[in-house]
Specification:
By secondary structure, the chain is α/β, with parallel strands linked by helices. The protein has twelve helices and 19 strands. Strands 4, 5, 12, 13, 14, 15, 16, 18 and 19 form a nine-stranded mixed β-sheet that branches. A five-stranded parallel β-sheet has the order 7-2-1-11-17. The chain starts with a strand and ends with a helix. It comes from Actinokineospora spheciospongiae.
């Protein structure tokens, strides 16, 4: 095949370009933002200064596409924690550790810089600093794009939209006479704040290197806090809240939030460590899913990946592993249809399995929050019952905790939590808990 074009040069776009380079002679990567020559923030990533955590699945998938990249990212300033140094707490109660499943805290711009270093030098890849404003199509097939500069890129066999949750793909589709895909939305009104603190060499807090604190709906107010070393001499701390409890950029308020976090390490942080910069805040108004698999009369030669397809509550850390899984789906689709017509409906059918899993995990938890409105999953009462039962059991049962962590880390499908063996252990754990109260 001759030419592919990727819209968007962030994580999903770079991974898509890596895949396409194996199948096409030329890969055009179109990104409107000015990309730094090295490592550094960029204006196009509004949450680039917020804490990011690479789940274990994300680390494995990235290493699969770029062998050794996670070690290189870590060596460039990130600090790895051992299995015994990382802990998840729910309402202040520690869950059993899951050996081998240790997330990696990372700055988003650092990860992107390493991905660019891997992708952009590839002989078939060309970067264009342009903004796509429309599609070019004929006889139901996309064959190019229109750019804001007035230029057109034609002769394209496949366009991949990786421009993120703010994509204009609906507008582009209407411009060529096609209807956009239906959308689902959950109104979260999430806000989160991140701050850096000075760290002494090998310092631990509450005898831990990394702490993930979940405040459930039973703990008012609900939210998530994450604390981890992001450099040998820096801690990074992120705190989230919803609605009226969204955090602000006030350092004094951030300190008060850490002092009331149920995991003790957060209070220890602000008492022992000096701030190393301002508090950065970001708002995430809603989770969004575009159901491309339900789109009617969708043009050939056009697909979408990453947050363009599904963008969930970021506190679950699903963004990067989703992008990597979508790249894998793209690779499998191209391999299955090599030399063929590249039916976009087949691709979106493959992607639906991944999107369903991500959306279900996030939506089940988000819809526990009383303020959340929007498109709720079917059978929500039963899903909440099973999820709550398993989640409570994961606090005391090692087997359930491991399976639960595998699902959270996207190593297992959410249906794994409904297997008879897991449900049976969860029921027994619930019975023991009630008996000992």
């Amino acid at each position: 095949m001759s030419r592919a074009l990727v819209v968007g040069g962030s994580v999903a776009g770079l991974l898509a370009a890596r895949v396409l380079d194996e199948w096409f002679d030329d890969v055009h990567l179109v990104e409107a933002d000015e990309l730094p020559a090295g490592a550094g923030p960029r204006t196009g990533i509004a949450h680039g200064d917020q804490l990011h955590v690479l789940l274990t699945m994300a680390q494995e998938l990235l290493d699969g596409w770029f062998p050794g990249i996670v070690d290189r990212v870590a060596a460039d300033g990130t600090v790895r924690c051992g299995a015994g140094e990382a802990r998840m707490l729910v309402d202040g109660v520690a869950r059993p550790p899951a050996p081998g499943l240790v997330p990696l805290p990372v700055r988003r711009w650092l990860l992107e810089s390493h991905l660019r270093r891997e992708v952009l030098p590839r002989p078939g890849v060309r970067l264009f600093r342009e903004r796509v404003v429309g599609l070019l199509a004929d006889a139901g097939r996309v064959h190019g794009v229109r750019l804001a500069s007035g230029r057109e890129i034609t002769g394209v066999d496949l366009v991949v939209d990786a421009s993120g949750r703010g994509t204009r793909i609906g507008e582009w589709l209407r411009g060529i006479g096609h209807r956009p895909p239906p959308k689902r939305r959950l109104n979260l009104d999430l806000g989160y704040a991140t701050a850096l603190f000075h760290r002494s060499p090998d310092q631990r807090l509450d005898d831990l290197g990394m702490v993930h604190s979940i405040r459930s709906v039973d703990w008012a107010p609900p939210g998530v806090g994450v604390l981890a070393p992001v450099a040998p001499d820096r801690w990074v701390c992120g705190i989230s809240g919803y609605g009226a409890d969204r955090p602000t950029a006030d350092p004094a308020e951030f300190r008060r939030r850490c002092l009331r976090e149920p995991a003790p390490a957060f209070a220890e942080l602000v008492r022992r460590c000096a701030p190393a910069g301002p508090v950065a805040v970001h708002r995430f108004p809603h989770a969004l899913r575009r159901d491309f698999h339900l789109a009617e009369d969708f043009p050939a030669g056009l697909v979408a990946v990453g947050d363009t397809v599904v963008s969930c509550n970021p506190v679950y850390g699903q963004g990067v592993p989703s992008a990597a899984l979508h790249a894998g789906a793209l690779h499998a689709w191209l391999r299955a249809g090599a030399g063929g017509d590249l039916d976009s409906a087949d691709f979106f059918a493959r992607l639906r399995v991944l999107a369903d899993a991500v959306w279900q995990v996030a939506a089940i938890e988000d819809t526990r929050l009383p303020h959340v409105t929007g498109d709720r999953p079917r059978g929500l009462r039963a899903l909440h019952a099973v999820s709550g039962l398993v989640s409570r059991a994961a606090r005391t049962d090692d087997v359930v905790a491991r399976e639960f962590t595998d699902v959270v880390n996207m190593r297992s499908h959410p249906s794994a939590l409904s297997r008879p063996g897991i449900l049976g252990r969860a029921v027994l754990a619930e019975a023991r808990s009630r008996f000992t109260r």
